[in-house]
């Protein structure tokens, strides 16, 4: 595995794009190392490669299969050392006030019936005291149920994250996705009990996805909501499967779903514009999507797509990490409670940076 991580260092030193990732509940780490320094943009959803898309706009960065060396290794590290002694970070009172003000504005426009739901987010900068390779290894250990990635191009910079949310999984004409919402701190001693606000938030996401997919499929199945763990927090999750009509294509489905209500709001386009106007910072690739398009790099199989929503993510620089964290807002949201939800989401990410 040492040679594998040396390859990451080499790509960074030479400013060559790469994507390194491990899928949920997998001990296999895949590296897609671009051979040239070109920055490719996705212009055709029939192309095969690795995509990295922003929250807003069409600037989808792409590593083509034909310009990549693929290496896979097995991750054999234990998770126990990383999960111990998670501590509450010191609260930035200015950031708290600003985020609570944003949540109040969201609640106001929701009560005014402009929106059913909005997803407010914020960003934090955390000093980095260790190297990129160590941080990524900790991500692999800490979030075994998530899609854990490290991505770099000269255009995007270096990003890392561990997202629990699938945007879309497809093989031939069958697609799978999830509706994920609601957040609680994980407890080993008691089962999660979900309030009506959290259940309603998750139902918004589920209903939206089902409505969107109905344009492309006449056969859609959804599970009952259930509790799903991701690191030190849990969510409500629904699994959804659909068979695409012959006239549908994967690009249409991706663009229809993204951004989902889990990261944006309802109605989608108006919610996206509201967030761009009011959050006070640029999300960039946070809450965009990333993953394999039309090709499984691990098995070498074509016609497979495996995309994830870019949550629990951070943009790395030489001496700090910019964390991106958010939460769903409904008419019943409490601004202070929502702020501390974002704090809980940042704890494990902070831990891997120490």
Query: What's the CATH C level?
Result: Alpha Beta
Count of discrete domains: 1
Helix content: 25-40%
In CATH, the homologous superfamily goes by the name Anthranilate synthase
Question: Which CATH architecture?
Answer: 4-Layer Sandwich
Round the mean pLDDT to the nearest integer and report it.
91
Task: Assign an overall shape.
Answer: globular
Classification by helices and strands: alpha+beta
SSE pattern: HEEEEEEHHEHEEEEHEEEHEHEEEEEEH
Q: How much is the radius of gyration in Å?
A: 19 Å
CATH topology assignment: Anthranilate synthase
Task: Please mark out the parts with pLDDT under 50 across 5 or more consecutive residues, or reply none.
Answer: 79-84
Helical region count? Answer: 8
Q: Strand content of the residues, in percent?
A: 35-45%
Largest sheet: 10 strands, antiparallel
Per DSSP E runs of 2 or more residues, the count of β-strands stands at: 21
Task: Provide an overview of this structure.
- With 354 residues, this protein is an alpha+beta fold.
- It has a single domain (2-351), classed as Anthranilate synthase (4-Layer Sandwich).
- The chain contains eight helices and 21 strands.
- It has helices spanning 2-14, 80-83, 93-111, 132-142, 196-213, 250-257, 268-278, 335-351; strands at residues 18-22, 28-34, 40-41, 49-53, 61-64, 68-74, 117-127, 147-153, 157-163, 166-171, 174-185, 217-222, 226-230, 233-244, 265-266, 289-293, 295-296, 301-302, 304-309, 313-316, 320-329.
- The strands form three sheets. Strands 3, 4, 5, 10, 11, 12, 13, 14, 16 and 19 form a ten-stranded antiparallel sheet that branches. A nine-stranded antiparallel sheet has the order 6-2-1-8-9-20-21-7-15, with helices on both faces.
- Strand 20 (313-316) and strand 21 form a beta hairpin.
- Helix 3 (93-111) crosses helix 8 (335-351).
- The longest helix is centred in the N-terminal third of the chain and has 19 residues, at 93-111.
- The radius of gyration is 19 Å and the shape is globular.
- The two termini are 23 Å apart.
- Mean pLDDT is 91; it is low at 79-84.
- Belongs to the isochorismate synthase family.
- InterPro entries: ADC_synthase, Chorismate_C, IsoChor_synthase.
- Its EC number is 5.4.4.2.
- It is an enzyme of class 5 (isomerase).
- It catalyses: chorismate = isochorismate.
């Amino acid at each position: 595995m040492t040679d594998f991580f040396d390859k990451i260092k080499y790509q960074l030193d030479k400013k060559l794009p790469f994507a390194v990732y491990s899928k949920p509940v997998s001990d296999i780490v895949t590296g897609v190392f671009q051979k040239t320094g070109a920055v490719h943009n996705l212009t055709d959803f029939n192309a095969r490669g690795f995509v990295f898309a922003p929250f807003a706009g069409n600037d989808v960065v792409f590593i083509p299969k034909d310009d990549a060396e693929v290496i896979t290794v097995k991750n054999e590290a234990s998770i126990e050392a990383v999960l111990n002694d998670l501590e509450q970070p010191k609260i930035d009172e200015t950031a708290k006030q600003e985020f609570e003000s944003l949540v109040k504005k969201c609640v106001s426009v929701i009560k005014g019936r402009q929106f059913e739901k909005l997803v407010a987010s914020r960003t934090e900068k955390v000093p980095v005291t260790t190297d990129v390779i160590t941080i990524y290894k900790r991500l692999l250990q800490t979030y075994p149920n998530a899609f854990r990635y490290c991505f770099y191009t000269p255009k995007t910079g270096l990003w890392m994250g561990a997202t629990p949310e699938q945007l879309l999984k497809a093989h031939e004409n069958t697609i799978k996705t999830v509706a994920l919402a609601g957040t609680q701190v994980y407890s080993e001693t008691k089962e999660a009990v979900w309030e009506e606000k959290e259940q309603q938030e998750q139902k918004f996401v589920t209903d939206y996805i089902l409505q969107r997919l109905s344009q492309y499929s006449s056969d859609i199945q959804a599970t009952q909501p259930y509790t799903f763990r991701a690191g030190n927090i849990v969510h409500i999750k629904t699994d959804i499967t659909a068979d695409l009509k012959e006239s549908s294509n994967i690009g249409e489905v991706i663009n229809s779903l993204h951004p989902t209500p889990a990261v944006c709001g309802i109605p989608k386009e108006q919610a996206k514009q509201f967030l761009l106007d009011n959050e006070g910072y640029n999300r960039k690739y946070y809450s965009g999507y990333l993953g394999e398009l039309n090709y499984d790099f691990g098995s070498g199989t074509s016609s497979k797509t495996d995309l994830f929503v870019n949550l629990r993510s951070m943009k790395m620089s030489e001496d700090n990490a910019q964390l991106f964290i958010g939460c769903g807002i409904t008419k019943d949201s409490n601004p202070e409670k929502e702020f501390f939800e974002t704090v809980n989401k940042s704890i494990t990410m902070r831990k891997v940076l120490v």
